[in-house]
User: What shape does this take?
Amino acid sequence: MSEEQKRLLEQQLWNIANTLRGKMNADEFRDYILGFIFYKYLSEKMVRYADSILKQDRVKYNDIDENTELGKQYIEAIKEEALLKLGYFLKPSELFSQIAKRGSSIAVDSNEIDVNGNGANNNFILEDLGKILVSIEQSTMGTASEDDFDNLFEDLDLTSTKLGRTESAKNELIAKVLFHLDKIDFQLENAQADVLGDAYEYLIGQFASGAGKKAGEFYTPQQVSMVLAKLVTTGKTKLRSVYDPTCGSGSLLLRVAKEVKEVGNFYGQEMNRTTYNLARMNMILHDVHYRKFNIKQEDTLEHPQHLNHKFEAIVANPPFSAQWSASPLFMSDDRFSQYGRLAPSSKADFAFVQHMIHHLADNGTMAIVLPHGVLFRGGAEQHIRKYLIEDRNYLDAVIGLPSNIFYGTSIPTCILVFKKCRENPDDVLFIDASQHFDKVKTQNILLPEHIEKIISTYRNRTEANKYSKIASLKTIADNDYNLNIPRYVDTFEVADSIDINKLASELVELDRQMAETKNTIAGFCKELSISTPF
Assistant: This one.
C-alpha cells in the first residue's frame, strides 16, 4: 500500500468516526468506532480461515445454509478448528458483512426497504448486533482464549441514549457506520502491510490528540514510543519477551515488536477497564496470536499480575507523579524490600522503577518515561537513586526530552534507561534532547532526525558539545546522586558582549528625538488652540 493509499484509508476511517462525533465526546465515540472496526476484522479473519478449510470441498463460508444438516456439520467442524487457531468463532449469519447489508438501505436513503426487498423489521439490526457481540465472547468460554475475549465489547453500549433518543434513531446511526465501514478493504490478505493495524494506531492517535488530559491514560505519542522501543532493542534482533506495566492501549508493546524480527511473548497490565479492552483488541488487530499475549487488568503497584516473570525488554510511560498507598506492608515485598525506603505516597514514580527493576531479566534493558523531578528530588527518592547507582549500578543513561511533548501535560520529561549487566559499568550517559524538536500547532514533536540523534548517541555512547556527556560514577556521587541534566551537560550559551558607550549614545539620541517630537506636537496643538498632552 502506497503512502497516498494509506492516508486515504486513514481519512476514510476518521470520516466514519466523525459520524458519531456530534453525539458524544472523544473517548466515548472512540470506543464505538474502534469496537466496530474490531468486529469487522474478526469477521473477515473468520471468513478467510473458514474458506481455507472449505477450499477442498469447493464451498464458501458465506454460502453455507445454517439450517441444513450439512450446513450444521460444516459449522461445527469449523468452530472446533477456529477456536484453536483464532480463539473465537462467528457463524455466517453473524458476520459483519451480513449485518451491514441488512442495514444498508437505512444508511443509503432511509427507505424502509433493503436491497433484497425485505421489510423494515429486517433492517432493525441493533438487537441482533448486540447478541452477536455477546456471542463472540461466549464462543471462547472454556477455551484457552477465554481471558483474552472476556467482556471485550462491554464498552460498546448499543442501548446508550447518546446514539439517539429512539431505538429507530440509534439503529439508523449504527447502520450508517457499519455501511461505510463495510465498503473499506482492510487487505487482510497482505500479511506484510498490516494495513488495519496501522490504521487502528492512527485512529488511537487521533483520539488521543483530541482527548486532552485523558489521553495520557491510554496513549504514548508515537515518536516517544519509537525512542523507547529503539532503546530497549539495542543489540537485539529477537526478544523472548517484552513487558509494559502500564500498557494503556498496548501501542508501546507493539512498537517494540516493529524494531526486531520476532517477539516471543507480550505482557502488560492496565488499571483502566476500558483501556484494558482497547489493549487486547489492539493486540488481536495486529495479528498477535492470543497465546502470545498476556494482558491483565489491575493496579500494577498494588496488585501485580506477573510476579513470577522476568522480561528481556521493559518499557513504560506510567502516570506522572501518581498517588499510591506506600503501605508499610510493601517493605516485605520483594520488589521494594531491598531498598530500605518506599517511594512517597504522593509520587509513585520510583515505585514503578522498582517494580520494573524486579521484573527485568539479567540480559534485559528497561526504559521508562518520568517527570524531571525524579532526577533531583530529595528524601526517599534520593535514597532510591543512590541505591540504584551506588549499590546496584543499574542506571545506564538519562535522556532529557522536550517539554509539551505529551498529550494533556506540558511539563518536561526524561527517559531513564536501566540494565542489570551493563557494558559500561563505570559511567552513565547523559543526553539533553530538550531543545531538539519541531512545533506542530500547540504540540512539540520529535522528527525522525531528532529520534535518530538520540538513538545513535546512546548506541555509540558519544559525547557532543551541549548535547551529551559521559559522567563517571564518582562525579555522580560528588553531586550527591542528583541527576539533573544541566549538572552534566553544559548547555550554557555565552551572551553577545554589549558596547556600553554605543548604548549610551543611542539613549542620548533617543532622548533628543523624543524632545523634538514633543515640540512638533506642541506646535500642532497651539495651531488648533487645544491643550498639549504633556
Notes: The chain has a mean pLDDT of 89. The radius of gyration is 30 Å. The first strand starts at residue 238 and ends at 244.
